[in-house]
Design a protein that fits this description.
- There is one protein chain.
- This protein is mostly beta strands.
- It is built from three helices and nine strands.
- The strands form two sheets. The chain has a six-stranded mixed sheet.
Length: about 160
């Protein structure tokens, strides 16, 4: 998420979700020039507050989102760019707490639409991060911003233009 200087974040493609979703800590609403905005923290590493980033974004909508357990949550929606398999795309992202989930972000089908072909039988088609980054995400290794940036995938998803 280049706009928020997040070089690496464990995400999962979820074609069952229309909108992408990001785990946001400490979500605060505020007004800027009479428009609703949100401020929140992004914790790029699982089970860690290391390298936390404070982000702000204009709220473009609010939506009632039904979770896989059937619960409905009212969430703010923001626009941001994300890098998927080396390609930058603009995505609508809902902000929520995903404490119990294994991924900090879900990439929904609208962010992928007309850009990627999803093969549900494959994993890491856009490239797998270096081992040091994977360890850092599990909480048992060290990574620097330079190694995080170097871990960005450079290959395209199979079947993408």
């Amino acid at each position: 998420m280049p706009e928020w200087t997040v070089a690496h974040l464990k995400a999962k493609v979820d074609t069952g979700a229309r909108t992408s979703s990001l785990h946001a800590f400490g979500l605060e609403w505020f007004d800027r020039d009479g428009n609703p905005w949100v401020r929140f923290e992004i914790h790029p590493w699982q089970r860690s507050t290391a390298d936390a980033v404070i982000a702000e974004a204009a709220v473009v909508a609010t939506r009632d989102i039904r979770s896989s357990s059937g619960d409905v949550e009212h969430r703010p929606v923001v626009n941001t760019s994300i890098v998927v398999a080396g390609r930058t795309v603009t995505a609508e992202v809902t902000l929520t707490r995903r404490d119990a989930m294994g991924f900090r972000m879900l990439i929904g089908r609208e962010a992928l639409r007309r850009r990627f072909l999803v093969d549900p039988g494959m994993s890491y088609r856009g490239g797998r991060p270096d081992k040091s980054i994977r360890r850092r995400n599990r909480g048992d290794g060290a990574a620097t911003p330079a190694t995080a940036a170097a871990s960005r995938p450079s290959r395209s998803v199979k079947g993408s233009p």
